[in-house]
Amino acid sequence: MSLARNVDLLRRLPRLDGLRFAEFGRIPGSSSPLEEVTGFGDNPGALRMFAFVPAQLQKPRALVVVLHGCGQTAAGYDLGAGWSTLARHYGFALLMPEQQRVNNGNTCFNWFNPEDRARDSGEPRSIREMIAHMTETHRIDPRRIFITGLSAGGGMTSVMLATYPEVFAAGAIIAGLPYGIASNLREALDGMFHSPARPARELGDLVRRASDHRGPWPKVSVWHGSADRTVNPGNANEIVKQWLDLHDLPEVPMAETNVDGYPRQAWWNKDGETLVESYAITDMAHGTPLGVADNDQRYGMEGAFLIEAGISSSYHIAKFFGLTGWIPDAAKKKAAKPAAPAAPARSPAPHLARSIRAKVAEEAAEPKQQESRGFDLGQIITRALTAVGLMK
User: Fold this and answer.
1) Cβ atoms of residues 223 and 175 within 8 Å
2) Distance, CA of 165 to CA of 160 (rounded, Å)
């Protein structure tokens, strides 16, 4: 969607409460396992609550909160981005709040309204109440709560991470904006279209003023298409700067690698834990990038603002959250059975070769908790081959 078309759409808005989009995110003939939950608590933001809890949950139990973009529904974005499939496969609970047209004619989360970007107020309070309900009802570990969102949902993800930082272990912002840069529609549009650069300390202070929390701060993953003409890609840099300042990390990346053909930057703490990462999806427009994951499975399906890019952002975000190492009981039992005779070795498929290269780059780039500062290339290749199943 071009900048000119956006401006033209804005001129025709009946009221200045957000951006007006067509009815996106509804996929005919398909269904989502999400179920609506009512009576979850205070709801000053007048949002709807949808959730999915698979039969098997990994332990400790985890919850992922997913916020849709403008013009989308919770179920539509779930089907498009594949979150319920991931939740079933890896055993975590899913919460998907949904905006209503009575709040915003375009079903955008109101990330820029003063009452909807403050702690214990408006939409953030409603989402916090939903999280509390899920935590109590399904015995979620309070240390394993995560959040992600696209576009306006990405903007609201920034709001939730800033206003309730003690609630979340990590978050992922897709084509979103940093917290606190807008308090009305005019400022929101300026941030979307121009993304003016701000000092890192100023950006960090916006978050520090949003609550009494002083750390530790959530980990953050940032995703943005380089050809996005709806939300300026410069916003990704501003989000990264905001969270690097909070984590007291340098602006220069500690590692720069390629994942499925796209550049990824990473920053970690003294223990080697990645605290901030950023993916630049080259030549991609506004939306959530889709593709086949490292486990050869596709999550989601293409649609408006749901773009085939050869990389599954939902999978990599779940991996960043630490949720993809779990194996369901049925798979464990199957793995315990005697193995069939091994087939003749074949050359690794292209996607496995790509995984090996990515693993080698990751092993070489990121620090290890050992005394030596060097690394053994042979050991790294062995670990990479083991990770993709080509060596025991």
Assistant:
1) yes
2) 7
